[in-house]
Amino acid sequence: MSDFDPSRRRLLGLGLAGLGALGAGPLLSACASSAGTGSTPTGGGITLQSNLTGAAKSGLEKLVADFNKLGKGTATLNTVATEIYRTQLPTYLSSANPPDLYTWYSGSVANAYSRKNLLLDVSDVWQGLGEYTPAMRNVSTDETGKQIFVPMNNYWWGFFYRKSNFAKWGVQPPKTWAEFLTLCQTLKSKGIPPIGIGLGDTPWVASAWFDYLNIRVNGAPFHRELLAGKQRFDDPKVKAVFAKWSEALPYFDPKGKAYPFQEATTALLAGKTGMFLIGTFLADATAKDVVEDLDFFQFPIIDPAVPVAEEAPTDGLFASAKTANPAATKALLTYAASVEAQEAYVANSSGIILPAHPKAKASDMPLVAKGKAMLAGAAELTQFFNRDSSDALQPTADTALTRFIDKPDQIDAILAEWQKNAEKVFKG
Amino acid sequence: MTAVSSTNSTARRRRSFRPSPLLLTFVLVPFVVESIWVFWPAIQGVFFSFTRWDGLSAPAPVGFDNYVELAGDPVFRGALGNTVLWLLLFGGLSVIGGFGMALALQRERRGVGIYRAALFLPVVFSLVVTALVWRVFYQPDGLVDQVLTAVGLEHLIRPWLADPETAFYAVIIPSLWRQIGYIMVLYLAGLKAVDPAVHEAAKVDGANSWQRLWHVTVPQLKGVNAVILSVIVIDSLRSFDIVWSLTRGGPYHSSELLSTYMYSAAFQSLRLGYGSAIAVVIFLLALVVIIGYLVRAFREES
């Protein structure tokens, strides 16, 4: 009966078959790495498993090609689609013959793998990285104090807008929360939905609002503790975050619930929304001349007494503890952390990113200089909800935040449920 | 089969007791393949449902904890309710629609092939493609909104897939759009087998067309109905792709089915033990329905 669509047959009792697929995972990843690992301990090939596509992929290709010219090892790049990568990464790392290197996130995500002894100790690579900022070193260090991550770049989040549109509407970027609400009011009176958002398919975008409001109202240390399970989501301090959010909620674009952030970006660029709290990756698929018209302002200050923190997700590389060729793996990491490699990487990937090495030159766009200055001026850096907690906690936030945006009056029930779901995740 | 021929065949079978190597290959190779990719993972799934497992460390046995948690989990209850509702709506409407279409298109007429092909076309598309097309229909200012505006019903416009009141139904429509064509084809085949002589006789006896449909056609479709019932039950329980590609079970679990909840529990929250427990529940549900059907079918045969 299922002749018409044989693939669906495998979906029967999807759980059972699906879980079975996990069992087959190690086989697959072993295949992926079979070209890389094995052979002689030095000079043997290493595999770099990557989820970077588009512009960033060409940057990484360049990095691998340049590394191979150095004669310290032969690396091959293996690119996997992000959604598959995200679900398969644990399988890659725990397989018997894993790929050597991985593009992924620093902070608690890397730390969680390190806790299971799956990541290579790269402290000796870090001995040569004295010029890196303490913040970069912190996000690359696990809880036992060893380094497990080498950062390549970071980027920032902010309220992006088109300069030409703000000029047309006769408005200025705000500095404080009160000014921000006034700006929203002005835009709304002109018939423009002030705040764009894209939650359809990409509900995690809402977490930026939660992160920023929390670090502005309660500060970064509380935020980190909350995301690590040391504070409760039904705490009155968390409720205060949503009270602030409620003030801005009437100004959200109602259509934003239905479309993904890519379409929300299009709406912003077309002048259908006023501004959009998003990461610099919004520029990835934007025409060059339009990018020149883009500007951003920092998330407004709510409580001047709270030290200013900014979201700066850090991307980079970590390595498998089971790599067959640690020498070449570390050589590649050392090269990737160098000024020269990072400048080439940034130049070859057209996205708006900042190199992790403080001496590496970023793109000379004014927008990039402004973003870099904002991060440099921040007292603390956070990354993003899932990167500061775990991918497993992210769905609990998605549920709570989209429900809040729909039904803000149910906040007590929402927070109680969020706490319950978070406890399940922390429990495992 | 007469008594003579049956003794003959038994005798023949006894004489050549050893099955041919070809037959063995045809039985054993699929069995081995199924064992590795279906039976073994299925057994493992049951085992995992009694553990707590994040996919990284060794699974830790927790006894019936996952099932106890399921019983008190409002999201699971919602997903179970949605799955039952899905079964009723998706199953019921696709049978009514498919049977209606089959009746309308059963007579060979000029151009009827075009209509049949048009109705069957959605079955050919992958569900993910179907979902992409429908997402464009549903998007803000998309086709649905334009049509509503054109007929003066713009006050009804809402974010169809993002509104918890409508998301579930907005997902059911595309899956029906597809399933109706499939059921229609099954009924068309069934209607071909209906004996026209019985119809003639009923006509001569003065039965009107409604009576002929209800008392002549429908009873003869019993075999097809049984097939369709099992197809619908299985299709409902494994409905995943269309829901996942349109709403991912959201917004906040309002269109969650057991299958999508299982996936997100296992692969997003990385609670593979809990996800396995949901999978076992799905398996048991399917088993109950299928065994129920088999028992009935056997009873009728004897």
From TrEMBL, chain A:
> Pfam families attached here?
SBP_bac_1
Q: What is the top-level taxon of the source organism?
A: Bacteria
Under InterPro entries, the record lists: Bact_solute-bd_prot1, SBP, TAT_signal
Write down the Gene3D superfamilies for this protein, in alphabetical order.
Answer: Periplasmic binding protein-like II
**Which PROSITE patterns does its entry note?**
TAT
Q: What is this protein called?
A: ABC transporter substrate-binding protein
TrEMBL record, chain B:
- Membrane-topology descriptor: Multi-pass membrane protein
Alphabetical keyword list: Cell membrane, Membrane, Transmembrane, Transmembrane helix, Transport
Q: What is the lineage of its organism?
A: Bacteria, Bacillati, Actinomycetota, Actinomycetes, Micromonosporales
Mind telling me which GO cellular component terms the entry cites?
A: plasma membrane
Subcellular location(s): the record lists: Cell membrane
Determine if Lipid biosynthesis is one of this entry's keywords.
no
From which source organism is this entry?
Catellatospora coxensis
- Where would you find the membrane-spanning parts of this chain? 21-43, 84-105, 117-137, 167-189, 272-295
How is this protein named in the record?
Answer: ABC transporter permease
Question: Which segments constitute the ABC transmembrane type-1 domain?
Answer: 80-295
Q: Name one GO biological process term.
A: transmembrane transport
Q: Does the keyword ATP-binding apply?
A: no
